[in-house]
TrEMBL record:
Chain ranges of the CASC1 C-terminal domain: 405-561
GO molecular function: beta-tubulin binding; microtubule binding
Organism: Neolamprologus brichardi
Any single GO CC term annotated in Swiss-Prot or TrEMBL for this entry: axoneme
Protein name: Dynein axonemal intermediate chain 7
Length: 636
């Protein structure tokens, strides 16, 4: 059985003089240098050998490791990149990146297979650019990152255009139209060209991609093409966060960029973006964008709603545009982005008398009169790579509206969700990019939690959430994994992977605005996590219902030794977990200790004490980081 204990903050000490503070800083620096020297010796000066993997029993992104030294890991990454000799530029060298993007922008290659290979390489470079943690370096590479993302999207447009130019040569015998699906690890491209222009057209289904769409009759007889490009990555939400940083809204709530205790995502610099917009280089880059012959149809102008010309005037309701903007702290886009576009069909290849005629000039629906028509519809099967704990919300990308470059939930109607088939359908007032949203903290607050030792430098951390229970195993040695589980990753990568998959148990300094919590003194709480991590190899810690009733200055949890039952605590409480009312009275005969670790150490057997003293510092750091990132004493 567990034993209930209470943790209380220490009394504030007297003021520390400047000399004492300087001495402490020097001691901390010397200790850090000694530890780094030991780490370098263990890793033979080149590659880190000790990792702390994190294994999730419930989901596919289970494993993580904490590197012994971040700088040393960067050296390993640079060395591996150098040894590949694949001609790829070094993302850390801006000159190489600029040269790479200029050459790729001028590359006339439009074959979809080769373009997707080039895009995959660019996405790898993009991930390396996002790993920059230095704020000054982040501002430096921000412009390069945005330009690279725009170039990837432009290449998708060029490859799409090339396919549509030969649409008449790939006509389906059943429908008389061109329909194709192209997939790789990062994107799914669904294309449909309206060659038949049948008035009986209803919808098109891309069964292998889990996508379908509907068009109004006015567009069904037009010379158009429809593209649904599903990217499993999200280039738009980062732009929305940067846009929000440089704008001020009349709302009292603060919506900063998404950030966790160990950095769930990189915060972009608003100042750098403003300088980019105002600089002549930005104008030049906009002009130098790759030109395409496809022109996006604006359904708002092509398909205006039908109105009764003699009816009474409509009453207009004033809606605050800010209220319709998606708060990316409250909601998280899952499953990537779906680009839902309509284009004027490019000139098709014509054959006559053995000759092949290709029109080189621009062609399309120039001068087409506006026609009244209803909304456009789309259906999406939820991606298998993410978990939706609740019915997903649909948000559209506002690229040039009132809320420039933001996700919005207005303009989406007739939403229906079929949970049995995991399919969501809706209608929109225009062709725009859209994403599926889920509340970031849908799985919080925790119903219970437990940190249980599994042996030396090994522990099992379990949280029972509102919708899903998750177990994470922390151990000091790497092991083999099946291809269904995933790959080894750092603590920050583990958090990002879980959040992107819809399984979020991590919180930040703003989480209390969106989920109920138990107010606790932060210094006492984080001191408890530090001391729990030190003894996690030998002691089990668990949730207590009394923690929510003991006040902000106290923490209550259940503790059980892995080797011998604890009988005396820092403050062993007289009450039990099954008691009827909370009482702060301590257990008769128990002693009061100044810190948590003193009480545990004084009551443990020699074997238990030896196990805690032999704990690897990386294992302790990993456990502490995981506890601080989830804060179970506050959010349960």
């Amino acid at each position: 059985n567990y034993t209930c204990i209470a943790l209380m903050p220490q009394k504030k000490a007297g003021k520390v003089s400047k000399a004492q503070r300087t001495k402490r800083q020097q001691e901390e620096e010397e200790r850090r240098l000694r530890e780094e020297g030991e780490r370098c010796g263990d890793s033979q000066g080149v590659r880190p050998q000790a990792f702390c993997p994190v294994d999730m029993d419930i989901f596919f992104f289970p494993d993580g490791f904490l590197a012994a030294d971040n700088a040393q890991c960067m050296l390993c990454v640079q060395w591996e990149r150098y040894m590949r000799c694949d001609g790829a530029p070094d993302p850390a060298v801006q000159k190489e990146m600029n040269t790479y993007m200029c050459l790729w922008r001028d590359d006339p290659e439009v074959n979809i297979t080769l373009v997707l290979q080039q895009c995959n390489l660019a996405l790898q470079l993009e991930d390396l650019l996002k790993d920059v943690t230095d704020p000054q370096e982040g501002q430096k590479y921000q412009k390069v990152l945005i330009s690279l993302q725009e170039l990837i999207h432009s290449k998708h447009h060029l490859a799409t255009e090339e396919i549509l130019k030969s649409a008449s040569e790939n006509v389906s015998t059943e429908t008389g139209n061109m329909q194709t699906v192209i997939k790789d690890d990062n994107i799914t491209l669904c294309l449909w060209a309206n060659l038949n222009k049948s008035t009986r057209f209803k919808s098109v289904s891309f069964s292998e991609a889990g996508l379908s769409f509907e068009l109004p009759k006015q567009l069904a007889v037009s010379d158009i093409a429809v593209r649904i490009l599903h990217t499993r990555y999200d280039h738009l939400s980062s732009l929305a966060r940067m846009t929000h940083l440089r704008t001020h809204t009349p709302s009292d709530r603060v919506y900063p960029a998404m950030q966790s205790t160990q950095r769930l995502g990189e915060r972009e610099s608003a100042a750098s973006l403003l300088s980019r917009r105002n600089s002549p280089e930005a104008e030049e880059s906009q002009v130098s964008h790759v030109q395409t012959q496809m022109e996006a149809l604006d359904v708002l102008s092509v398909c205006s709603p039908v109105r009764d010309p003699i009816g009474p005037p409509e009453e207009h309701t004033v809606i605050n545009p800010v209220a319709q903007v998606v708060d990316l702290m409250e909601y998280t886009p899952l499953g990537g982005v779906f680009y839902y576009d309509a284009f004027h069909l490019p000139p098709q290849i014509q054959y006559a008398h053995g000759w092949k005629f290709v029109q080189a000039e621009k062609s399309g629906l120039d001068g087409h009169e506006a026609l009244p028509c209803p909304l456009v519809g789309v259906s999406v099967t939820l991606p298998d790579s993410v978990v939706f704990l609740e019915a997903p919300q649909v948000a559209r990308w506002d690229a040039a509206g009132i809320s420039h470059k933001q996700w919005r939930m207005d303009g989406i109607t007739d939403i229906s969700y079929d949970e049995s088939e995991a399919k969501i359908s809706f209608k929109a007032d225009s062709f725009q990019a859209f994403a599926l949203m889920q509340k970031t903290y849908a799985n919080l607050p925790f119903q219970s939690w437990e940190l249980r030792p599994l042996g030396q430098d090994s522990a099992l951390y379990t949280v029972n959430g509102a919708f899903m229970n998750i177990s994470i195993t922390i151990q000091s040695k790497r092991g083999g994994l099946s291809h269904l589980i995933g790959k080894w990753m750092s603590g920050s990568d583990l958090q990002k992977a879980m959040v992107d998959a819809g399984v979020n148990i991590f919180v930040n300094e703003y989480a209390h605005k969106y989920v109920s919590s138990t107010a606790k003194d932060p210094l006492t709480e984080h001191a408890a996590y530090e001391q729990m991590a030190l003894f996690s190899s030998a002691c089990a810690f668990s949730w207590s219902k009394w923690n929510a009733k003991c006040g902000a200055e106290h923490l209550v949890m259940q503790v059980l030794s892995h080797i011998d039952t604890l009988y005396a605590m820092s403050r062993k409480l007289e009450i039990t977990e099954t008691g009827e009312a909370f009482s702060p009275d301590h257990y008769p005969g128990s002693e009061f200790h100044s810190t948590f670790i003193h009480l545990l150490q004084d009551t443990m057997s020699p074997d238990g004490v030896a196990r805690t003293r032999n704990s690897h510092h990386l294992f302790v750091d990993t456990v502490q980081s995981l506890l601080c990132a989830t804060r179970p004493l506050m959010y349960s």
